[in-house]
Amino acid sequence: MPKPTRAVDHRRRRSGRAPAIAAVAVAAEDDGEEHHLNPFLDAAPSSSSSRVQFRKVASRAVWLEEAGAAEVVDSKGKLWLTTGVNRDGKLYYNVEEIGFLAERGALVLLDYEGETIGMEEIYGKIAGGKYGCSWDAFQAYKHLKLLGYIIGRYGVPWTVKRSHTYSVTDASTSVVETDQIQSLNRVGGASNDITKLLKEMCIDDMHPSFEVYLPNSKFKKTSPGDPSFVLCLLSNKPPSREELETVENKFEGIPLKFCHVDNGRVSFLSSNKAALPSLP
Amino acid sequence: MDLPGPRWKKGNDGKDFSALAAANPMSVIVAELKASFISSKPVAVLSGPGGGAILGVEPEQAVILNRAAFGHAVEIAAAQKHWFQLSPEEVFYLCHVLNCIRVESHDKKQMSDKQLWNHFRSMSESFPEMYKAYSHLRFKNWVVRSGLQYGADFVSYRHHPALVHSEFAVVVVPEGAAFGNRCGRMEVWSDLLCALRASGSVAKTLLVLTISSGSCELSSPDCLEQLVVHERTITRWIPQQCREQRSEASRDEANREELISKKESVEFNLWGVILGFSVLSSLLVYKLKFRQ
User: What is the Cα–Cα distance from A133 to A210, expressed in whole angstroms?
Assistant: First the structure.
């Protein structure tokens, strides 16, 4: 009977929480032709959604529009160890982290009035591009995150040490808050500025998106070390040699990987300068 | 043209899905999709530069959308709505041809077909010919998916991808004045043979769709009526394997199958032997992948 077989499959998938098993599954999907649930035999919608683990306890976070991120007000589980950035003792999630966690039922996002922000609005925030992310970057993030990689936004430190200022004036408070807001997104300027973001995108179609660390149970936000690689998102066309070398020079020493997202399908590429030996 | 037949997938009972496909013609499913969506007209939100849109639908609509093989379902836990990611071609087809979804820009304004057309054109220079190729195949009730993982523009399926393997790796070639200087596809031998080898290695036939433009203006979807699609398949012909065939139009894959099925030991030349080994090893690798 097909049903017991499917039940067994679900049980195995659900129990297989180890990243290695997920890695095998994702690798299998990536190598071969697309895997499709059969919508003519299975109960398609419910069985497709059952592949995503439902977490019984969800953290809660409040969306902060001016920061372009959410402050975690009630944290559950251990996700905070490798997700989100810490500022002044508070944990913040950016939009791709929110999307990833919300899709898995691990996060409930609230507005400042305490109302739940639904998936539609979360997707709108990601796809809108105003908060330092894009739909394609979200797909790449999700792909690596599911494989257990530790992913941070490029240029955004995991933690920031900050000395307390005891004499607080309005001006200094404003400065501190501005610094804090900027440090949630990108060093050297707020990427929430649409014009600036568009400029960045227009300058080249290749921009560093994420700093990626290998799956590592000993990862610490306070001393993350150098990332395993910096991930650059490509959009329209393959990069030219000049573009490749420009970006490579910018990251002397840290490997680069390139990522192309085609309607949700994520492909990764490496490009290395080669010097073939002259054979005898 | 003597092309290899479809490669149906099989169910748990060992029977292939050809009967199931015949009982559910894709044209009927698409008609059901249109009828199901036409009253609610679900709204899709554009997903940013280079992308298509994200569509939220009710569970019953999700079943039909899945069957019609539009979009990719987003995996999400315990949601009332089901989310699909659509490619630009899929978005425009659902809007323009089936007229069963609406698209909103980020400021929540509904977009007309012309606005949507120019949005996608501004995102991708090749959208006109890509969409023309996509809609051409969909009009013939083929299922069309991205072919990038095979080094092609699209792959086309005879029915739902869960029932059958894709038959064609599709490369879209723009031709004519309206496309300007953008005719860089298949113009050097390595491009052509690269596409041919890549599609052959995954058991697909290379289908080149040339979109002729004449001199029409591309700034409106009205130009679609003036774009002409030419279908052409390209195959390798291997003379060593065809000396025993009477048929003039012998096929690469057909010859491979013939080679495998020969019971008597026949003396082949070196290339025949090498090809036989490569076919056998390909089949072995394929089975191993399938087992995963």
Answer: 10
